[in-house]
Write a structure and sequence with these properties.
Layout: E1 3-9, H1 13-24, E2 32-37, H2 43-55, E3 58-63, H3 68-77, E4 85-90, E5 93-95, H4 99-109, E6 113-120, H5 130-138, E7 165-167, E8 175-178, H6 198-207, E9 211-222, H7 232-248, H8 256-277, H9 280-298
Parallel strand pairs: 1-2, 1-4, 2-3, 6-9
Antiparallel strand pairs: 4-8, 5-9, 6-8, 7-9
């Protein structure tokens, strides 16, 4: 089956170089790699040209404005009708040698699924335990189910499992789709910069029409480059706006009352920790939550 890999990048030539090395080392190489670059210099172009020369893998390289969702849509426009599977990964990811082979195997094992996600091997451990964990679940900030998209717009990660299972969404650093399942779908270009939440939005819309599967057999390391990252407080505000956006455009099962309910619960917990630990950090986080609500209601874009 013809399969292509899409990578969108900005100002991370070193990270991208390591990612592409892992692509070249795949036991089942992609038939083509599509790279859409919004970097400020030509350093990334040089990395891509060297990769194409050394690996022999076909590359489609293009430049775009610095907005990830625009880059993703441009990449989709390059995918031809003969392509069976479209893989997406991030430029700061290193793939296990069997990653693409296992993703294709998952599609073969689940012929009716529209998308497959793999295991992020270096996810941090859960920190919430006991009362805090139950509090978070009560306020729709967490779930016992992995890979869930909650009514609040909060999405839970897949951390464990010996066998593939069905999920509600796929992580942007590890999501692959049948081309037929994403025909006509576009990434939401109102999401600015790195497109906060674009993976949840896109994959949940795919899930409305076909099943999504998570497989533990396709693994990767997401190194989370510090380049082009929002600071923690801005990320909080954008997360709230993203969840509100999901509800506003009708991404199931997200709804606005549940989004507000979850933000209130998280803010109450942060205020309690502000008092308990005399922590200005938690207070700033609580304020960022409420600022995100105000911005979302005013219609500020993600």
């Amino acid at each position: 089956m013809w399969h292509e890999l899409i990578i969108c990048t900005r100002n991370r030539p070193n990270d991208l170089g390591e990612c592409l090395e892992s692509v070249a080392a795949q036991s089942c190489r992609p038939d083509r790699v599509v790279i859409v670059d919004s970097s400020d210099t030509d350093a990334t172009r040089g990395v891509v040209e060297e990769f194409e020369k050394r690996s022999g893998i076909a590359v489609r390289y293009a430049r775009a404005i610095p907005r990830k969702t625009v880059q993703m849509n441009m990449a989709l426009d390059f995918i031809g009708p003969s392509t069976g599977i479209v893989h997406f990964t991030d430029d700061d990811v290193v793939l296990d040698r069997e990653y693409l082979a296992e993703m294709l195997a998952a599609f073969e094992a689940h012929p009716h699924c529209g998308g497959v996600g793999g295991r992020i091997a270096n996810l941090p451990e859960r920190r919430a335990n006991g009362v805090v964990r139950w509090f978070r679940r009560a306020f729709l900030l967490d779930s016992v189910r992995q890979g869930a998209l909650l009514h609040s717009g909060v999405n839970t990660m897949c951390r464990t499992g010996a066998r593939p299972y069905r999920v509600d969404w796929l992580s942007g650093c590890s999501m692959s789709y049948r081309r037929s399942a994403i025909a006509g779908l576009r990434f939401d270009e109102t999401r600015a910069r790195a497109g906060h939440g674009e993976d949840v939005d896109f994959s949940a819309r795919v899930a409305a029409g076909s099943a999504l599967i998570w497989t533990p057999h396709a693994s990767l390391e997401h190194r989370v480059s510090p380049i082009n990252r929002d600071d923690e407080l801005l990320a909080r505000r954008r997360a709230v706006r993203s969840q509100w956006r999901l509800a506003r455009i009708g991404v199931s099962p997200v709804n606005q009352p549940a989004v507000l309910y979850a933000v209130v619960g998280d803010t109450l917990m942060l205020l309690a920790m502000t008092v308990l630990f005399r922590s200005r950090t938690h207070l700033r986080q609580a304020i960022a939550n409420m600022a995100g609500v105000v911005e979302a209601v005013k219609g500020v874009s993600v």
